Amino acid sequence: MNTLNIIEKLKTENTASREELIFLIKNISDSGREVLRKAAQELTLKIFGNKIYIRGLIEMSSYCKNDCFYCGLRRSNKNAVRYRLSEQQILFCCDDGYKLGFRTFVLQGGEDGYYSDELMCGIVSEIKRRHPDCAVTLSLGERGEQSFKRLFDAGADRYLLRHETADEAHYSKLHPESMSGAYRKSLLYKLKDIGYQTGAGFMVGSPYQTAENLADDLLFIEQLRPQMCGIGPFIPHKDTIFRDCEQGSLELTLTLLSVIRLMNPYILLPSTTALGTIHPKGREIGILHGANVIMPNLSPREHRKDYAIYDNKICTGEEAAECVPCLANRMKSIGYQIVTDKGDYKSIRNSECGIRN
C-alpha cells in the first residue's frame, strides 16, 4: 500500500477504503501532505473559485444541560460564566451583522432548555422577516424530531450537529452514560429527511482517539453526505478531566480537511476558530488545505470570552466580525476573496456537473 496511490484514488474516485484511510493517516509524509493539500486546493478552486463564504456566529447561551467530559460549558463546571442572550440581543446581532455584510447567521449555544420551540421559532421567523435574503443556521444540540421540524417550518435553513466521533466506544469515553453516539448520528439523518442543509463534524486528537476512529469518521461523513462538515483540533479546557491532555495536531487536522474535500467535493468546509486558536495563521492555512468557510464572531463583545468550550479561544481582534476588512485582507494575501453570498449548497451543486458527490 502506498500513500501517493491512495491520494490519487481520492482525487480520481473521491473515495478510499477504511484500510487505505487508516494507512494514509498513519503513514503520510510531509511531501505526501503537500501532494494531498494541492489536490484539495485545486478541487476547491475548480468548484468554488477563490470564494470564501463568511457566516456570522452568534453564541446564544453558555448554559448546557449536558456534562460532556471535554467541554468547558459542561453542566458540572462550577467555574463557567453563564449567560444567555435575549431575543432582542440576538436580533440586534443579526441586524448589526447584516450591515457588516453577513448573509448567514449561525445561532449556536449549549443545550439550554430556556430556548423553547416557541421562543426559537419566533426568533428564527423574525430574522427571516427582517432579512429574507439571509440563511439561518442553528447549532443548538440534540432536540426532538418535532422540534427540528417546527424550527425548519419557521424558516431555519441549516442545522449543525457535530457527531464528535463515529465510534460508539470512543463516544462513551468522552460523554456520560446518558448520552448516545448512535442516537446523535440518527438525528443527523432526521435533519436531512426534514429538509435541512445539515452539518456534522468531529474533533481531531480528542482523548483516546485512534487512526481507526478517524477513518470511521471519514466514512461516516461519506455515507451521511452532509452539506457541511466542521472539524477542528481538540483543545483542552482547564476545568475538565482532560485538562492535561495534549491538544490535537495542526498537521493531522489539515490532512483530514484535505481528505474530506476530496471525498466530498461540494461540501461547505469551515476553517474553524479552533484552527485559528492553535496557530496565528490557522484559518489561512485551513483555506489552503481545502476549506472554504470562515465564521467570525458576532456575539456581544461582553460575552465572547464567556463561551469557553476550550481554553484561549480567539474571539476578538482580526477574528471578530467587526473586522471583516481585516479578514478580507488576510484572505486576499493568500489569493482568496470573502463573499457575502449565502453559499447555498444546492445552488452550487446545480451549477456544476461531472464530479461525483
Task: Explain this structure.
The protein is α/β, with parallel strands linked by helices. It is 45% helix and 12% strand. A six-stranded parallel beta sheet has the order 2-3-4-5-6-7. The chain has a three-stranded parallel beta sheet with strand order 8-1-9, with helices on one face. Helix 3 crosses helix 10. The relative contact order is 0.16. The C terminus is likely disordered.
Distance between the termini: 25 Å
Strand order of the largest sheet: 2-3-4-5-6-7
Q: What's the shape? A: globular
Quaternary structure: single chain
Q: What's the helix-strand series?
A: HHHEEHEHEHEHHEHEHHHEHHEH
| Amount of beta strand | 5-15%
**How many beta-strand elements?**
9
Radius of gyration, rounded? 19 Å
Structural class: alpha/beta
Count of DSSP-assigned helices: 15
Low-confidence stretches: 353-357
Q: What's the helical proportion of residues?
A: 40-55%
Whole-number average pLDDT?
Answer: 94
Biggest sheet character: 6 strands, parallel
Task: Offer a quick outline of the entry.
The protein has 357 residues and is α/β, with parallel strands linked by helices. Helices cover 45% and strands 12% of the residues. Strands 2-3-4-5-6-7 form a 6-stranded parallel beta sheet.
Which keywords apply here?
single chain; 357 residues; alpha/beta; 6-stranded parallel sheet; 3-stranded parallel sheet; 15 helices; disordered C terminus
What is the fold's blueprint, element by element?
Blueprint (H helix, E strand, L loop, with lengths): L2 H11 L4 H10 L2 H19 L2 E4 L1 E6 L25 H14 L3 E6 L7 H14 L4 E5 L5 H10 L3 E3 L7 H7 L6 H14 L2 E8 L6 H14 L3 E6 L16 H14 L9 H6 L3 H7 L4 E2 L6 H4 L19 H9 L4 E3 L5 H6 L7
Parallel strand pairs: 1-8, 1-9, 2-3, 3-4, 4-5, 5-6, 6-7
Helix pairs in contact: 1-3, 2-9, 3-10, 4-5, 5-6, 6-8
